[in-house]
Amino acid sequence: MEHNYLNYPYPSRQMTKFSQKGMVATSQPLAAHVGLDILKQGGNAVDAAIATAACLTVVEPTSNGIGGDAFAIVWMKDKLYGLNGSGPSPKDISINEVKKRGFKTMPKRGWIPVTVPGAPSAWVALSERFGNLSLKEVLKPAINYAEEGYPISPVLSKNWKKAYDKFKNTLTQKQFSNWFETFTINGNPPNSGDVWKSKDHALTLQKIAKTKGKAFYKGELAEKIDRFSRKYGGFLRKEDLNSYSPEWVEPISVNYRGYDVWELPPNGQGLVALLALNILEGFDFKNKEKVETYHKQIEALKLAFADGKKYITDPQNMNVSIEKLLSNNYANTRRKLINNQALNPKPGEFTKSGTVYLSTADQEGNMVSFIQSNYMGFGSGLVVPNTGIALQNRGHSFSLNKKDHNSLAPNKKPYHTIIPGFLTKNNKPVGPFGVMGGYMQPQGHVQVLMNLIDFALNPQAALDAPRWQWIKNKKILIESNFPTHIAKELSRKGHKIKLELDSNSFGRGQIILRDSERKIYIGGTEKRTDSQIAVW
What is the CATH number of the domain that holds 272? Predict the structure, then answer.
């Protein structure tokens, strides 16, 4: 992977960054600098990741919060670790109970799609296993920003107003009033430059730090969540919170052009990216800006999503093994379906048998790929009174069809969109990467990785390159700077191409690569938002 770091084929306000001692990349400058400060105070990459993640719940609440989920891939002392910090459905929920309330599909907002929040427990688990500093120390900057406030950045203001405009007409019931009290200033969404603060959010973070998460899952905060849920007919109970703990998992991988690409196993959708890369491995790509390159990328991802949407769910409920799905034989079978025209994808058959991403790196060579989300921006639209806790709505992805793999059931984890990624080669770390944004995430992973590996773009150029997004059937969204001649050629192949002017639709990514010989880090960050890399 030999990059030309001075060659920037795509317009960008960002440049590839270099550092020796440490690097923190994420979507908000304030959070990136919080992580860097933690490194300078003697924290490691994990401490920096936790501090940055907690800070992001304050400085980018449009995408994540204390009431959301988190996943991490950690390279620590020459070994890779995976953490699944996603929570299950409540023990008392069921398809029948939801249908009794008049729903034919899972709703987006309100109590029904609320699952157990996993993010606070993920912070605690990472801190206890790998941290150099105490949880109190790493959460302090986030507490300060919540208590004292900070000026709203332009992209944040835009997304905040978009959510407000949607919610003011749809979230009119009393249970949603706390959202408007928490996330408005005098009843209006904050404009760019306005100072927003949440003392309730600060107090909640203090309680999590002081009790190492116990207040959230077993104490005062759990009781407040329980009372709020009971008051408005929710299923979530203190017992659901009491019994929850995050899971340490083994990351899964495929080898692509000599690089091992690592994702977390289901219930996350990282498997989709690996399935697509396995298919693409069988093709030879000599030129990025060719219609055949884009066509094959799109078709491979469509086939991968068809399998992912059918089979990915809580791993306890998957009846097809990951080994089968990622086998060379299966990749060969799927690859043969790709021809010169756009397909309507269908899953393969087997015999019976709303996100923030951040990456951190420290001077010891430790690195973290971390992702955290409430889903669909502000999640369920519910904020627990006097806590600042905006609850996620991950249960929306459950099906109410009992025959579906991802069907709703008690104490079950849903198909999850947020996925951190990591790259190694010959058992040595190359670095963390990620692209957030719902179902765009595995699509972003594949596009960015191919830019790095197949086309030797530097990290910043790999992120800046025009993106496409498959929506369903043959519908493809393209960015405004996508090559027009290629869009026309794709259309002739049967793809239904639509120009999308909102760059938020195409995800937001970060990359940190480790140059082991020179012992430096090389980073790229997203031009589509207010992102920044803080370097040391």
Answer: 1.10.246.130
Rg of the chain over Cα atoms, rounded to whole angstroms, equals 22
For the chain, what percent of residues have pLDDT higher than 70?
96
User: Domain range for residue 291?
Assistant: 253-355+418-514
| C-beta neighbour count of 96 within 10 angstroms | 10
Express each pLDDT in 198-243 by its tens digit: 999 999 999 999 999 999 999 999 999 999 999 999 999 999 999 9
Residue 337 clears pLDDT 50, i.e. is over it: yes
Query: Per-residue confidence at 355, pLDDT binned at 50, 70, 90?
Result: confident
Residue 436 near residue 498 (C-beta atoms within 8 A): no
Q: Is pLDDT above 50 for 151?
A: yes
User: What would the mean pLDDT of 503-521 be, rounded to a whole number?
Assistant: 93
Residue with tokens 């970060």: 510
- The tokens for 496 are 């239904």
d(CA 120, CA 209): 9
Query: Among 67, 412, 90, 384, which Cα is nearest to 240's?
Result: 90
Distances (CA, A) of 398 to 87, 326, 394, 461, 514: 13, 24, 8, 37, 38
Cα of first residue to Cα of last residue in the chain, in angstroms, is 24
Rounded-to-integer distance, Cα 405 and Cα 140, Å: 42
Is 153's pLDDT higher than 90? yes
Using CB atoms within 10 A of its CB, is residue 141 exposed (0-12), middle (13-18) or buried (19+)?
Answer: buried
The one catalytic residue in 16, 355, 360, 424 is 355
Assigned domain for 187 exists: no
Give the C-alpha distances (Å, rounded to integers) separating 113 from 64, 235, 408.
16, 9, 10
In a domain, 199, yes or no: no
Range with the poorest average pLDDT among 4-8, 236-240, 248-252: 4-8
Is position 355 annotated as part of the catalytic site?
A: yes
In a domain, 389, yes or no: no
Are the beta carbons of 411 and 109 closer than 8 angstroms? Answer: no
Q: How far apart are CA 236 and CA 175, in angstroms?
A: 15
Number of independent structural domains in the chain: 1
Distance, CA of 374 to CA of 355 (rounded, Å)? 7
Is the residue at 330 inside a domain? yes
Strands (E), 374-518: 383-384, 389-390, 421-425, 428-436, 468-472, 475-478, 496-499, 508-515
Distances (CA, A) of 503 to 62, 164, 306, 487: 16, 19, 25, 17
